[in-house]
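ok so i was messing around last nite and threw this chain in just to see what happens. nothing serious, just curious
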Amino acid sequence: MPVEVGSVLEGVVTGIANFGAFIQLPGGETGLVHISEVADEYVKDINQFLKVNDRVTVKVISVDSRGKIGLSIRQARDSGERSSRRRRFEPSFEEKLSRFLKESEELQQSLRRSLDAKRGGRGSGRRFL
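result:
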């Protein structure tokens, strides 16, 4: 049975490397889940997430001309209800960036006020005659 891009399948982890995990699919074909496609969070050590013989649900994200199959555990999970629940409570990247910029600007203003107070305030710098 040919594997189609976009299909969600269940497979078994047959091998683990520093860069990802090899998954045997139902048709006997083997695909690779790159380390960046294992979880939504940063994965430093894939062994903390997967072990050989684990059953995993994967989404086929690519099939190249040589027949290499690219898989994603992360995207397979995103198609379910779990991701919509997570998105409701977790701020988006833009919201996080906006909050960071606001907090950073407030901190900069606080530091400027503190330095100005130590120097004697604005406009009252030392004057030499």
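not much to say yet. The longest helix spans residues 93-119.
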